[in-house]
């Protein structure tokens, strides 16, 4: 793998795309009083927190709850925990959020957490969609859709988690 990194999103572009995604979520769910944002740890959860802040600012009369999912991403079967009860999702619209959608495995595992919970609707939001789907999962809301080759890697750095300025890199 090459050591060369190409900046694909800078801090301001990530901020703008986050705002756009928040407005899309709001427009798609304008009739809902409460939406559950489910962030996949670690960067997906940070991204979900940011979307929650934006949504609360642009739609102050609505409720945007937040749930964190920790998924064992390298396992071949679903092993996951949450920081709350899944019952909070019952009969609600949930938005499953991650930083990068690559194969779809992580989002599939996230979806698997809610198979036994009656939902109103589930949507997905990612900052970057790489379009290398091995699972039939797609991003409903995305900041950037990027066609890459399989050996390329997309890395998102978020200040709250990485202690570096926000950026997305292709290497």
Structural overview:
- With 171 residues, the chain is an alpha/beta fold.
- The chain has one domain (11-148): Rossmann fold, CATH 3.40.50.2020.
- The protein contains 4 helices and 9 strands, in the order βαβαβββαβββαβ.
- The chain has helices spanning 11-28, 43-58, 105-112, 159-162, and strands spanning 6-9, 34-40, 63-71, 80-82, 93-101, 121-129, 141-145, 154-157, 167-170.
- A 6-stranded mixed sheet has the order 4-3-2-5-6-7, with helices on both faces. It has a 3-stranded antiparallel sheet with strand order 1-9-8.
- Helix 1 crosses helix 2.
What's the gist of this structure?
The protein has 171 residues and is of the alpha/beta class. The protein is 27% helix and 32% strand. It has one domain: Rossmann fold, CATH 3.40.50.2020.
Residue runs with pLDDT of under 50 for 5 or more positions: none
- Summed up, the helix count is 4
**Average of per-residue pLDDT values:** 93
State the helical fraction: 25-40%
* CATH domain class name: Alpha Beta
Order of helices and strands: EHEHEEEHEEEHE
Label the overall shape: globular
Count of folded domains: 1
How many β strands by DSSP? Answer: 9
Amino-to-carboxy terminus distance: 8 Å
What is the CATH topology assignment?
Rossmann fold
């Amino acid at each position: 793998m090459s050591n060369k990194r190409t900046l694909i999103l800078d801090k301001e572009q990530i901020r703008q795309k986050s705002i756009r995604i928040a407005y899309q979520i709001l427009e798609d769910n304008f009739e809902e009083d409460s939406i559950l944002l489910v962030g996949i740890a670690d960067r997906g959860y940070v991204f979900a927190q940011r979307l929650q802040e934006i949504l609360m600012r642009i739609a102050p009369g609505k409720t945007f709850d937040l749930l964190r999912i920790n998924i064992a991403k390298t396992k071949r079967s679903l092993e996951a925990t949450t920081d709350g009860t899944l019952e909070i999702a019952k009969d609600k619209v949930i938005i499953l959020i991650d930083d990068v959608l690559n194969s779809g495995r992580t989002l599939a595992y996230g979806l698997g957490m809610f198979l036994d919970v009656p939902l109103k609707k589930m949507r997905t939001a990612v900052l970057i969609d790489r379009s290398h789907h091995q699972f039939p999962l797609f991003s409903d809301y995305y900041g950037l859709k990027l066609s890459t080759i399989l050996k390329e890697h997309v890395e998102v750095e978020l200040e709250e988690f990485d202690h570096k300025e926000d950026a997305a890199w292709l290497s």
